[in-house]
Every structure is written in structure tokens, then in C-alpha cells.
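Pair request: fold both.
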Amino acid sequence: MTAPVDVKSLSDAELAAHLAEVAGRILLAVRDSGVFSAKALGKAGDQTANQFLVHALREARPDDGLLSEEEKDNAARLDKSRVWIVDPVDGTREYGEARADWAVHVGLAIDGQPVIGAVALPGLDLSGSGAGTVLRTDRTQALPPAPQKLRMVVSRTRPASEAVAVAEGLDAELVPMGSAGAKAMAVILGQADIYLHSGGQFEWDSMAPVAVAQAHGLHCSRIDGSPLVYNQRDVYLPDLLICRQEHAQMVLSLVKAIDKAA
């Protein structure tokens, strides 16, 4: 039996990382149980991981607000300075297909800013320990050297036309990938250089990944260059740019030119 964890004694970053990692293990156990059909697996995993995360956060941080993709929204969060924003399974299709490009997001926005976050990639076991990979705001790593040819991660099922146009303008290689969290972490891990999304998202899709990306020194903004703000009444957040700092202005200028020409 695992020793009890005093979650109230953990720092916010430690708590985010611990919960994301445990939720990832729960999701793997749900999938490996063999109980669910392919059609039912996504819902079962989402709901199971969500219940764990919601109850754990209410136990550990009872005074904080909470926004989860799998929970009914609550107006009470709007009056909170500290709001946890979680996505129990980002990339449900990839999770069901036992791919590596799905994630668990646990993040904390303070006064609307993405301050604390952890992104678990349970299907990507970089260490060989069998525990997957967790990237977090309190344990950063140096970015790998940038290659000569740029690489841009895009949706593996429906690449946004704007992102494809920017990739063409940069002569960048397209790297199809599943979840938003996996795409953002790919830039940190050196699997890509740019993640540009313009096809519509919600706050839980990007909050934790943005917090982690910013902690690693990456540029994070809307595609018009404006800041990303969270814990809004309308949780729809349509676009996102995460990239190495040296590419940001070039990408933003291309987006502006493409939009002007459209």
C-alpha cells in the first residue's frame, strides 16, 4: 500500500504534479482493466480521473476555486483569486488508442494568470521507469538545441488552415499530434519548435500547458500577441501560440499578414 500523502503540506506545484501523475496512473488502470468497450472507454476514463482530481483538490485546497472540463461550471470561481483548472483527459481519442500523445492537465491560475501547472504524459515513458512523464513549473529543464529546419505541431485529425499557412510561410515541417498538452510539451522536449492553434479551445485545454511552457522560458500568447487570461466567465479561448522565444515575432507577423490577406 502506498504511504499516505499529506496533500495540505505540499506546495501548489508539488500538488499539481502529484495529482496529475496519480490521475495518469488511474487512467492507465481503467484502460488496462479490459472492462470497457472502445466506445465507452473515453467517458469512463474522463469521469474516473475527474472524480479523483475534483475530490483531491477540494480536500487539499478547499478555499480555492475549481474549473474542470468534466464538471458543471460554477459562478463561485469568478470571485476567487486562486482557481484550479483541470482537464482529466486531454486527447480522449489518443488515450483510447493507447497512443503516447494524450495528457492530464492540472493548473492553478492566480488572478487570471497561468502561474502553476503540471502536465502528465502517462503514455510517454522517457525515463524507462514505467511511470510516464510529468512536466511541471517547479522543475524545469534546458530546451534542446533548435534544429535548422523548423517543426510545427498540428492536430493529427484537423490541422487548422491558419497553422498550415504559417508553416508554409516558414517552410516548417508539420508534426501531427493529438492533445494540446502533448503538443505544448513537444516544444519543451525538443520534438517541435512551434505550436500554433487557431481552431478553438477552452481554458482547460491550455492553462496548465501554458504555465509549464512559460516556466521553461517559452513564448505563450494569443495568436495576435495578446496575453492569455484565465478564469473568465466565458471559458472559450479560441487560439494559442507556444514557441521558442526566437521564433515568436516571426510567427506573429506571419499570422497578421495571413489574416490581413484573407
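--- second member of the pair ---
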Amino acid sequence: MGFTLAPTAASQGFRLEAHDSVGSTNALALERARAGDAGKLWVVSKKQESGRGRRGRVWATPEGNLAATLLVVTEGELRMAATLGFVAGLALADALDAVVPKGRISVALDGASAGRNRFELKWPNDVLASGAKLAGILLESTLLDGNRFAVAVGIGVNVVAHPEDLPYPATSLKALGATCDAETLFLALSDAWSENARLWADGRGLTAIRQRWLERAAGLGGEVAVRIDGDVVRGVFETIDEDCRFVIRESGGRMITVAAGDVHFGAVASAGAQ
């Protein structure tokens, strides 16, 4: 089947632009915004030639994987729009729960995870399964006229294949024994986004989003190391604060709040964060 929106999404005014292959769904969505698109546009593809991850890293999307970007155009605060990444993580985890049969996925993250969820959210922008990266989320923005800006909420999911040459574990739905395809996953994602975005309510519901996110948080309460501009901060993953920043409790009890950085859990907290 081809890509299609869930009835809930269509009824709320979301639109769909589907491709067999693109350079980058994020770049295409931002092009549409600069050309006057009003937002609520999903740009999706099963193959992405030049996708990006955080800090400009390459994120491959071979044939059969899912590359999806939602274009959001708003006059609100850019700081608040940045929390859309947490909305995206929750929506994707909900969608995965809906389409992957129970019992197919187990969760284990270097001993740091309590295994409460089959799909866990790693701060700030990854979805994990069996302790390995299954999906990544990337937000990009551009200024528009009229005091508006556009946010491209990019979601890349390893449906049928995953990279092998990464410095951290990665996996795909196929490798985990699931038979879901990209089209089915997107249908569920467009439905789950509608509900989580309603809860977020342009940032007014961020407290509820934060609580839901913490219920799925990978490594919560476990040993963690965060690399920040070459320095490494170590301690216990305490929580995320009211602005969704990462909070570490050092051995002496001091709390450190992190706005951006690379997070490593468990055994990797000692070796991988160097």
C-alpha cells in the first residue's frame, strides 16, 4: 500500500506529500514553508539520499525505511517549539506500540533500564529498542516573514535496515523480528502525533508531555555520562526539568542541568563517553 494519513490526522487538517525517494524530507519541508506553505504538512519517503542527524551527522535511510517530516509553522516562541522533539518521540513510541506485536521486543540498556517499555526514549532525540537505536529525531527551523518561523520535525526509523558502522548499537524493526512496513508505521504515527500534539497544546501542556516522556525514559536512575563540548559530566540520570533539559546528580549530590550534549548510559558511560 502507499502512504496515507490516519483519518484522525486528515480530519484535523493535516496534509500529506509522499515520495519514493528524496534528498531530505526536512529540507523539502522547509522549502515548502519558504514558498508559503501554512504547515501541518507531512513529507514522507521510504528512501532518503542525504538525511542528517544531530550536529550534521549522516543518517542513512535506505529503501524501505521511514523518513517522515512534519512541517509546523507558528508565531510562538522558538524555545517552546524546540520541545516538539519530545512530542515526536512520544508519538513514535505510541505508534510502534500500536503496530509491533507484543512479545516481539524486549528492552535492555546496559543494565540502566528497568525494562518498563518495549520502546524507550533516550534524551534528547532517539528511540531505542533492545538498548539499540531504532529511530532518530531532528528538529530544524527557518525564519519566515511576519514574525513567524517554520519547524521541520524530522523522524527517521530503521524499518528494514540499520547502519552497521556506528559507535553505538543500532537496530531495525526487521532485525527485531517485526514485520511492520514503513507505510503502516506512518499511518500509526500520523494518528499518534495528533493525540500527543493535542496534549502539548502549543506548549501549554508541556508538563503533561514531560511526565509521559519520563515514563518512557531510557536510563532513568542509572549511571550516565554526558559529553559537553569536549568535557564529560558523570553521575545519575535524575530527571528532565520543566524545560525538558537533562538533569544529572553527581556523586556529591550536586545537580547539573544540561541543555545539549551526547548521553551515554551504563557501561558505555565509562568507556564510550571519552
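Observation on the second member. The CA atoms of residues 45 and 168 lie 25 Å apart.
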